[in-house]
Each structure stands twice: as structure tokens, then as C-alpha cells.
Design a protein that fits this description.
Shape: globular
Distance between the termini: 24 Å
Structural class: alpha/beta
Order of helices and strands: HHEHEHHHHHHHHHHHHHEHEHEEHE
Number of helices: 19
């Protein structure tokens, strides 16, 4: 089974320089145990590294995009070569004037291909590798050119002052939810602009309905129901760094555990389809599948999910997100895979990567 997504999208550049999926809910959903064999979509590598914090047997990171694997490999080198505060500077979570020097300390730990890749990206390294992706540059445009038209710096500062949910709701309605906010948000996060500047246009092949309006509703949830000062993803979108909160993999309490478990990580340039066709049955016990299912047809989704179940054993867990396209276990797999809806629903209400419409957790019977 070949990769449908690879036939339609460009996978030659960094799409995501950070993993825009909440590792806190991912880890609770997967409930990784000592000795587990885990498979994860690599993306930029943050959540792959978070999985190492749970002391699994091994984590196999897959991606069809070599640029994303270069992001992961550089992160691995940074965990090996740098101290925690230096890692935060290198990523861009904290201000720094020494990122080029920090890169030189990591460089010798890279493969030749990854070294060439990053040697040609001096500007991205100087600015912080966490901002090097197409998706992050899309948010940079929003932060630099769109937000100042809508809201004052004072309003954005007050947004992070962390009041009660009732106070946040009142603040949103009186200070944030203006006609200018709604109009410019819908324009900037429309299907056309997001496909051109942020994601790949082919990622919308199976999307129906009003994209911007759905994202606006989820953003309201993030600014009112969730607490903005606790949200590192919102922090980066609005400020370009992690000034108030850090994603799971970058928190100091996980740094040494991740560093000690780096030898358990296997990085593979492969599609999930190719991997699932080559691995022995009953091998994998945990799957972090990102949001890849919404990029393929419902028929191919069902076929791929069935292949992945074949590689699993009873008790194996699958976790994945839906942003704009609904994907959940088809009825044809009801005898092999059960949805953990109560767990998934509870975790979705806590999801700090607020733009996803659904979070799915399923378990092999």
C-alpha cells in the first residue's frame, strides 16, 4: 500500500518546526509502559522525545519528509550536547545571541545529510530552529502583520493574566471578540490562505464546510475555557517564544529522562503504509499517529488502520487527532478495535493545541 498523501503534497521542506500536538494528553491517552514498542509520526520530534520520557522499550519515529527527520535528528543532538537552558535558547523558546555557537556544539553529532541540511540554514538557526517551518512562519505573519491591526499590545498582555473562566469569558466578549477580530481571523485562516501560507493545499482535499469559522470557535475555547498562561502553543502563536509555559518535551523535569533514553529511539525515512506492510504481526503496542488520517480518503484510512491493527497485539493503543476531517474507527473494524470515547473526550477538552476538532483514542481488542 503506497502513501496517498505523498502523491499529492510536497514533502521536501520543513512543514512543522515544532510538533503542534499536545503531548500531555497524548501521553495520558497512550499510557506507555516500560518495554512498550511505540511508533510515532516524527513531525518536528517534540512528541517523539516526550514518549521517551515514559521509559518505553523503544520508539520508532517515521516520516516521509526527510526535512522533518532532520528536525528530529538535530533535537536529539541538542539533548545530547546542550544543557537544558541552552536547549531552550537553541529552540527559540528563550532569547539568545549564541544559537550559532550552540549549533556548532551539536553539529558533530549529526549525520552527513542532516549536517548539510542545517549548514545551509544559518538564518533559521540564528533565529531559533523552532520557527523554521512553514507553519511557524504562517503564525509569524499573523503575529507581526495581522494582530497589531486587531488588538493592542496591552490587550494581548492582559489575555495572559490568568483570571477565572468567568472573567476570561467576559474579557473575550468585551476586549477580543470585535468585528475586526472576526473578519480578519476568517480571512487569514481561510482555506485559501492557510493552504497557501501554512499547510499544503492538498491537505484540504477531504475538508467540507467553513474552515475559518470552525477554527474561530476552537480559538474561543482556548481563550476562555482553557487558561492562556498555561498554554505554550498559544504563547508561541502570539509572542513567538515560550515565555510563560513550555511544551512537555522542553520542561526541565523531563530533560534528563529524555536524554538518558535517546538510545531507544529509531529514526526511519518511511511512510506509515510501508512500515505497516513490513513489520511482524503483534509487534507494536503504542501508536502516535498525529493527524495523518485526514490527508487520505476514508477508504484508504480504513485499509491503513486495518494494517496497523495487524501489527498490534491486544491492548495496543492508537491516538490521533482530527483537525478538519472526521476520522474514527470504521464499523468494519468493530470486532478488532474499540474506541475509548470517554477518555478521548475528557482529554480533548484539555487539549492545549486547541485548533483540533477531535482527539481519538482506540484500543485493540
Amino acid at each position: 500500500m503506497d502513501s496517498e498523501a505523498a502523491r499529492h503534497a510536497d514533502f521536501s521542506t520543513i512543514r512543522y518546526a515544532q510538533t503542534w500536538e499536545d503531548a500531555d494528553i497524548l501521553l495520558e491517552a497512550l499510557n506507555i509502559q516500560s518495554g512498550d514498542t511505540c511508533v510515532a509520526i516524527a513531525s518536528a520530534g517534540d512528541n517523539v522525545l516526550s514518549m521517551l520520557s515514559q521509559n518505553p522499550g523503544r520508539v520508532i519515529a517515521l516520516d516521509i519528509n526527510p526535512a522533518q527527520l532532520s528536525c528530529l535528528e538535530l533535537r536529539v543532538a541538542a539533548y545530547r550536547a546542550l544543557e537544558h537552558h541552552e536547549l531552550l535558547e537553541f529552540i527559540g523558546s528563550r532569547p539568545s545571541q549564541q544559537r550559532t555557537r550552540l549549533y556548532r556544539r551539536c553539529r558533530s553529532l549529526l549525520s552527513n545529510a542532516t549536517r548539510r541540511f542545517w549548514d545551509n540554514r544559518e538564518v533559521e538557526i540564528h533565529k531559533g530552529i523552532g520557527g523554521a517551518g512553514k507553519f511557524e512562519k504562517y503564525f509569524f505573519i499573523f503575529r507581526k502583520y495581522v494582530l497589531p491591526i486587531i488588538h493592542s499590545k496591552r490587550a494581548l498582555t492582559e489575555l495572559f493574566e490568568g483570571d477565572t473562566a468567568v472573567e476570561r469569558q467576559a474579557f473575550y466578549e468585551t476586549r477580543i471578540d470585535s468585528w475586526r477580530w472576526r473578519v480578519l481571523f476568517r480571512i487569514f485562516f481561510s482555506r485559501a490562505l492557510m493552504g497557501s501560507l501554512g499547510r499544503d493545499p492538498s491537505f484540504f482535499r477531504y475538508v467540507d464546510g467553513d474552515v475559518a469559522n470552525r477554527l474561530l470557535q476552537r480559538t474561543r475555547h482556548a481563550l476562555t475555557t482553557l487558561n492562556p498562561p498555561d498554554n505554550p502553543y498559544l504563547d508561541w502563536i502570539l509572542t513567538g517564544q515560550h515565555a510563560r509555559a513550555l511544551p512537555h518535551a522542553l520542561r526541565e523535569e523531563h530533560f534528563e529522562t529524555i536524554r538518558c533514553n535517546l538510545d531507544k529511539l529509531e529514526i526511519r525515512h518511511s511512510s506509515l503504509e510501508s512500515f505497516s506492510g513490513s513489520v511482524e504481526a503483534g509487534t507494536v503496542t503504542r501508536f502516535n499517529l498525529s493527524d495523518i488520517f485526514e490527508y487520505i480518503s476514508e477508504t484508504n484510512y480504513a485499509m491503513l488502520l486495518e494494517q496497523l491493527v495487524r501489527t498490534s497485539c491486544p491492548g495496543t493503543r492508537f491516538a490521533y487527532w482530527n483537525m478538519l476531517v472526521p476520522r474514527r474507527r470504521p464499523d468494519s473494524l468493530a470486532h478488532k478495535l474499540r474506541p475509548l470515547n470517554e477518555l478521548a473526550s475528557r482529554l480533548h477538552t484539555q487539549d492545549k493545541t486547541f485548533f483540533y476538532s477531535d482527539f481519538v483514542v482506540e484500543e485493540v481488542i
